């Protein structure tokens, strides 16, 4: 036995081979086993994995999932209460939604005509109508949503999840982000900051590329056939093993030998998972893969399901073109119509598909943007400004009660009013659903134990099924 | 008659009228003759004001924010934000801040501003010393949560205590490590073989493996000073400055873009990077190096020449390089976040303290109070880092133009003027030649003779060219002094809850002899820099020598290289740390001297062999009985591959960004236009926050957002994918293979040269055998893959070369 305090994290850093793999989950096991004695988790997990659908730019809550009759009534009037102390840009009077809302499902939850397909899934969805954040600019808000901090570089929520739970599949990363955006936080939105490197998200492509081009960097060899590369790796293995004989017990050297083998296997595994031709025509249709308008996001969603099935813990899909997709300061009618059309069917397709495969029970789906939009008009009467004060995200599956609206915004949909759910609360609740206590999932760095939720965060038990 | 024994208790229960009556009685009794006039002011003017506007919320019935204003004691203790009155200093008094309503965050009374004359009365009363009938207003300083003298006993805060050493000429590093080894009955490994040593020294000091000729020279040199000669050569090289400069860039979170929310280009950051490389290469005394980075702008007067002056301005880029929330709508918050980032960076990089932890509350573990934090914050609040805080905020840049630059600009402007004169001259000439209209007006140009028109067009074209090429005078990110102002303590770090002002100074625990002073009219930054590098501060030399130790051995004597506080790992070998720090200071803060001390020790030269019995009880090598095998850092992986393949461009780089200063790297699009095609050393490649070059990020390079003196060394499959499949590695391997193939067609010659180039040695018979077999198999496979015969030889050797580049022997320092 070593007489010195074991530097477990140091050892983890040096020896973890794969993409998070058992080393990290072992950490959680060790930590919580010490805490509670038996269970590998802080709580009984309701969800095993997360699919996060990020709507870059900030979709408008009052035009989608937060119906406000009073806003329709008072269209054109001035807001009868004060606007926030810090606003992104000045706005004018109230602007009623240009879209009609209808009640859907057994729950009768109103959804605007922008989302006819998602509307059919309302009984599986828990709408969080009282979300709020702290930053009114895209960069700060996107960072807050992804990392819990808008002014410091902190690990992303996917990295925390992969650090906490590890991957279910040794040949795959624990955290994959498909076509993420490089602006407004970029890599920090899927980075691991001070957590071990293997907990960071593996990006497949970027937002300016079509999903067809989304691939792990360097996954394919431009020069050698697979058998030629095998010959090369066999020679390498022989050389490395001779080297290891001279330095036995060097775990890092041994780990590196294995890392080449894993990489070689991944070269076939990843393309296979991303090959959507293996899906039936019906499934492809369900997501809208054959329609040019929905094809790109459908591809992301279908890949997400395949990754979820294969054991990836945290999968993020991003709806963003090379611009700030949902950011309709002007052209609200045109922009939101186009955006909703692109994602509505793929989202509903994913929910339906997960449900019919029995995956929805333990897969938590999270939908939302970095903030919402103001119920007041910006510019003319066809735009809305950023609004972090009150907006809507939604969750489905993974132990969340469907067919409900949780919390509420004020009568115009400007501020979170009832059961306000800060971004920190969303994080705390998400971790709880995965079986982790946001106050106990910590990492010691620079002399402090850090958490995804910093010093805040409240679990909202009211949404659990 | 006498006042009740417990005045304050009594006062608290008294209705105000009775209180006033009592005060009048007291005054009339002349119990305190010296303040009779003030008492009068209080009784006649101040007390009624307080009664009318304040006491309903800050009196006997209610104490908003814990504050009441109805007794001397209450005035002295104050509320949550601290005492409301500082006698003689109305501008520093919270009460005045509140009634003046200049700051949106503290405005009293809440229902409307007081009449100006009332404000003037309050101001005058405080300015004259705030005389109070119960006695003098003496704001109570909150008690420290620790005893300074006791807190200074913590190992990191104690003065340096170098151990006494025997007079023998053994290297003190060895003597001091050996003491610990002996206590455990360990015996240090013998030195590694010469080939391992030169490889280790080259990679450690320059980040590049030795060239075959350098290895041969060292192996042939049998003199006792052979290794010292190698060390001197390496320390003299530009590559040393580049490699160790890069280490420092980790600590100062260097980057060529802002990152965070608005990722715009630090177009001039490279000047700071090259300043660091130059300073390290020339072994600038490290204390001076630190002073320049903290306060170089205040040291320009003593600069002997222009280059030195500019270097000192450039050095302050250190304070400005941090990531900033440039689109923050709340300007005050933005400024406080920037100061916080500066304090955090200074604390961790130079003091090993997590000062940032005391922004919202007293430090949970270390003797640093919130007051300490805001005392330091005041220094940096009095420093100008930003030119504008308006979205998108702009950082300040100092001019670093040389006389030559200015002359070049003047010459260029003179050329423009001359060109303009030439054009005017030609126009005048043609009008003098009689080209006027009947009305005496000049002839329109399009009616001038064709020849003249052509001349004019040519002149104007070259004028446009000149005007488009006006040389820009160079500027550098950096700071300058700003309006001097102390900072207020912010409750929970919230700028909407300001509290009392604190004077600008250093933390109490660090000011052991209470001698820290700031000259009038100074921000205190220069004084801070001088204190930081003085013998009064033992932390900085400890932190620096520990960093150097960490970069050599893979783990510091203090394992937490960026944190020396109570949450740190205590030093494994305190006497060694003390001796190294003291020796570093007495040798004039010379990094090169420190390197020589370390590299010439048996400790550094020990082999990596684990067959030593010490392995059983100290497998992690905490006591330094062997060399710890370390993976190459990201830059060294790339640079070494390029170097051994003959591809490395060793020239010094300047800016390699594709966008101009302050332009977006990524706006709303996610297109990555940064090019990493350059073959220069990695230290010169752009460091783009939020999207670091993957050859760097894959191998644990820091992305320059926070100080990091202790990079990880992960082993993940994506590194393997990079080495197996990236065009960078394959094309470098092909370059080497081409060289091998053109040198000889003989297998044995190539099989001799290849490993010598990559690994610095020849292969064993068994290894050769494996290589030959692989070559044969590859040949067959590549033929099957359709590679034409003419290309196959090169392809086989490309594959073999790449294999050696992927090997552990190449990627690890043994």
Task: Write a structural description.
The complex is a heterodimer of chains A (465) and B (814). Chain A has 465 residues and is α/β, with parallel strands linked by helices. Chain A is built from twelve helices and 17 strands. Chain A has one domain (8-222, 311-463): 3-Layer(aba) Sandwich (Alkaline Phosphatase, subunit A), CATH 3.40.720. In chain A, strand 2 and strand 3 (109-112) form a beta hairpin. Chain A is globular and about 80 Å long. Mean pLDDT of chain A is 87; it is low at 1-39. Among the domains of chain B are: 7-127, no CATH class; 285-399 and 479-537, no CATH class; 403-435 and 446-473; 724-813, no CATH class. In chain B, the strands form five sheets. In chain B, strands 1-6 form a two-stranded antiparallel sheet. A two-stranded antiparallel ribbon of chain B has the order 2-3. In chain B, helix 12 (238-251) crosses helix 13, helix 14 (286-295) runs antiparallel to helix 21 (525-532) and helix 27 (634-644) runs parallel beside helix 30 (727-743). At the A-B interface, helix 1, helix 5, helix 7 and helix 8 of A face helix 29, helix 32, helix 33 and helix 34 of B.
Descriptors for this entry?
heterodimer, A: alpha/beta, Alkaline Phosphatase, subunit A, two-stranded antiparallel sheet, 12 helices, 17 strands, globular, disordered N terminus, B: 814 residues, mainly alpha, two-stranded antiparallel ribbon, 3% strand
């Amino acid at each position: 036995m070593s007489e010195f305090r074991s530097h477990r994290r140091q050892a983890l850093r040096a020896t973890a081979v794969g993409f998070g793999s058992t080393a990290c989950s072992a950490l959680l096991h060790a930590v919580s086993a010490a805490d509670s004695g038996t269970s590998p988790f802080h709580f009984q997990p309701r969800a095993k994995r997360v699919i996060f659908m990020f709507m870059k730019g900030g979709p408008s809550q009052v035009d989608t999932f937060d119906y406000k009759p009073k806003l329709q009534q008072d269209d054109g009037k001035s807001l009868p209460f004060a606007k926030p102390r810090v606003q992104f840009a000045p706005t004018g009077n109230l602007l009623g939604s240009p879209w009609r809302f209808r009640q859907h499902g057994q729950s009768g939850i109103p959804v605007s005509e922008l989302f006819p397909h998602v509307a059919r899934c309302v009984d599986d969805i828990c709408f969080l109508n009282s979300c709020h954040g702290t930053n009114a600019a895209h960069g700060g808000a996107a960072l807050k949503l992804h990392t819990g901090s808008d002014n410091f570089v902190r690990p992303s929520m996917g990295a925390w999840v992969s650090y906490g739970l590890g991957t279910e599949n040794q040949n795959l990363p624990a955290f994959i982000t498909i076509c993420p955006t490089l602006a407004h936080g970029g890599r920090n939105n899927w980075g691991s900051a001070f957590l071990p490197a293997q907990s960071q998200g593996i990006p497949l492509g970027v937002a300016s590329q079509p999903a067809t081009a989304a691939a792990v960097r360097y996954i394919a060899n431009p020069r050698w056939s697979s058998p030629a590369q095998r010959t090369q790796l066999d020679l390498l293995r022989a050389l490395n093993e001779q080297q290891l004989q001279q330095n036995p017990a060097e775990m890092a050297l041994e780990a590196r030998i294995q890392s080449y083998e894993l990489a070689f296997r991944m070269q076939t595994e990843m393309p296979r998972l991303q090959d959507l031709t293996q899906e039936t025509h019906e499934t492809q249709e369900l997501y809208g893969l054959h329609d040019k308008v929905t094809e790109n996001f459908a591809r992301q969603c279908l890949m997400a399901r395949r990754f979820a099935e294969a054991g990836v813990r945290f999968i993020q899909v991003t709806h963003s073109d090379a611009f700030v997709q949902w950011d309709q300061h002007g052209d609200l009618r045109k922009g939101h119509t186009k955006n909703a059309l692109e994602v509505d069917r793929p989202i509903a397709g994913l929910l339906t598909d997960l449900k019919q495969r029995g995956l929805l029970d333990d897969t938590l789906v999270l939908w939302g943007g970095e903030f919402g939009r103001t119920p007041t008009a910006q510019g003319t009467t066809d735009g809305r400004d950023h609004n972090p004060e009150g907006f809507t995200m939604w969750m489905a599956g993974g132990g969340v009660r469907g067919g409900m609206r949780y919390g509420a915004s004020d009568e115009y949909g400007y501020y979170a009013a009832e059961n306000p759910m800060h971004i920190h609360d969303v994080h705390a609740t998400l971790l709880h659903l995965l079986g982790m206590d946001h106050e106990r999932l910590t990492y010691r760095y620079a002399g402090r134990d850090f958490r995804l939720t910093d010093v805040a965060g409240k679990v909202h038990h009211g949404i659990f099924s | 008659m006498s006042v009740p024994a417990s005045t304050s208790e009594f006062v608290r229960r008294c209705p105000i009228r009775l209180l006033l009556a009592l005060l009048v009685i007291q005054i009339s009794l002349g119990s305190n003759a010296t303040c009779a006039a003030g008492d009068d002011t209080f009784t006649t003017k101040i007390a009624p004001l307080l009664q009318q506007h304040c006491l309903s919320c800050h009196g006997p019935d209610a104490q908003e924010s814990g504050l009441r204003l109805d007794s001397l004691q209450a005035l002295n203790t104050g509320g949550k934000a601290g005492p409301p009155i500082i006698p003689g200093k109305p501008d520093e008094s919270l009460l005045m801040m509140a009634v003046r309503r200049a700051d949106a965050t503290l405005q009293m009374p809440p229902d409307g501003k007081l009449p100006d004359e009332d404000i003037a009365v309050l101001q005058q009363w405080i300015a004259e010393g705030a005389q109070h009938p119960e006695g003098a207003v003496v704001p109570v300083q909150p008690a420290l949560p620790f005893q300074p003298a006791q807190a200074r006993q913590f190992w990191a805060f104690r003065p340096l205590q170098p151990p006494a050493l025997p007079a023998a000429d053994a290297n003190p590093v060895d003597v001091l490590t050996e003491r610990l080894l002996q206590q455990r009955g360990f015996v240090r490994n013998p030195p590694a073989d010469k080939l391992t040593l030169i490889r280790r020294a080259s990679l450690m000091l320059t980040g590049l493996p030795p060239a075959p000729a350098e290895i041969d020279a060292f192996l042939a040199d049998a003199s006792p000073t052979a290794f010292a000669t190698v060390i001197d050569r390496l320390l003299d090289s530009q590559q040393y400055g580049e490699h160790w400069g890069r280490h420092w860039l980790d600590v100062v979170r260097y980057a060529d873009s802002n990152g965070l929310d608005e990722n715009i280009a630090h177009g001039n950051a490279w000047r700071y990077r090259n300043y660091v490389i130059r300073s390290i290469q020339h072994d600038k005394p490290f204390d001076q190096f630190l002073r320049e980075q903290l306060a170089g702008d205040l040291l320009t007067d003593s600069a002997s020449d222009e280059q030195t002056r500019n270097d000192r301005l450039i050095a302050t880029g250190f304070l400005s390089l941090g990531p900033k929330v440039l689109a923050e709508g709340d300007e005050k918050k933005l400024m406080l976040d920037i100061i916080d980032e500066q304090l955090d960076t200074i604390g961790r990089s130079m003091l090993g303290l997590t000062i940032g932890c005391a922004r919202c509350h007293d430090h949970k573990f270390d003797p640093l109070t919130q007051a300490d934090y805001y005392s330091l914050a005041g220094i940096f609040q009095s420093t100008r880092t930003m030119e504008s805080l308006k979205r998108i905020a702009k950082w300040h840049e100092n001019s670093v133009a040389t006389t030559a630059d200015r002359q070049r600009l003047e010459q260029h402007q003179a050329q423009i003027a001359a060109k303009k004169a030439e054009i005017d001259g030609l126009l005048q000439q043609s009008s003098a030649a009689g080209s006027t209209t009947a009305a005496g007006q000049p002839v329109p140009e399009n009616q001038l003779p064709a020849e003249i028109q052509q001349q004019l067009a040519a002149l104007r074209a070259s004028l446009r060219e000149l005007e488009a090429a006006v040389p820009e005078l160079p500027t550098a990110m950096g700071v300058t002094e700003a309006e001097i102002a102390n900072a207020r303590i912010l409750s929970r770090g919230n700028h909407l809850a300001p509290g009392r002002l604190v004077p600008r100074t250093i933390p109490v625990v660090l000011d052991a002899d209470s001698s820290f002073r700031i000259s009038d009219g100074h921000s205190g930054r220069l004084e801070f820099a001088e204190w930081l590098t003085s013998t009064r501060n033992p932390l900085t030399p400890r932190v620096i020598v520990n960093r150097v130790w960490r970069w050599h051995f893979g783990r510091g004597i203090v394992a937490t290289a960026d944190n020396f506080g109570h949450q740190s790992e205590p030093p494994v070998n305190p006497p060694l740390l003390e001796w190294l720090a003291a020796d570093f200071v007495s040798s004039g803060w010379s990094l090169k001297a420190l390197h020589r001390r370390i590299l010439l020790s048996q400790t550094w030269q020990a082999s990596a062999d684990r067959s030593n019995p010490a392995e059983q009880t100290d497998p992690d090598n905490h006591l330094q009985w062997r060399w710890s095998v370390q993976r190459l850092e990201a830059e060294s992986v790339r640079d070494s591959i390029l170097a051994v393949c003959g591809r490395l461009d060793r020239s010094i780089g300047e800016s390699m960004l594709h966008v101009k200063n302050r332009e977006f790297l990524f706006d709303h699009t996610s297109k990555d236009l940064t090019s990493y095609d350059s073959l220069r050393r990695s230290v010169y490649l752009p460091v783009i926050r939020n999207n670091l070059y993957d050859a760097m990020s894959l191998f644990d390079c820091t992305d320059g957002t926070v100080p990091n003196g202790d990079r990880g060394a992960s082993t993940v499959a994506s590194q393997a994918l990079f080495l197996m499949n990236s065009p960078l590695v394959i094309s470098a391997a092909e370059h080497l293979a081409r060289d091998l193939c053109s040198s000889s067609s003989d297998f044995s010659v190539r099989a001799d040269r290849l490993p010598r180039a990559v690994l610095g040695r020849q292969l064993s018979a068994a290894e050769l055998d494996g290589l030959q077999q692989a070559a044969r198999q590859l040949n067959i496979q590549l033929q099957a893959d359709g590679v034409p015969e003419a290309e196959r030889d090169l392809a086989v050797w490309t594959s073999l070369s790449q294999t050696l580049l992927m090997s552990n022997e190449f990627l690890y320092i043994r």
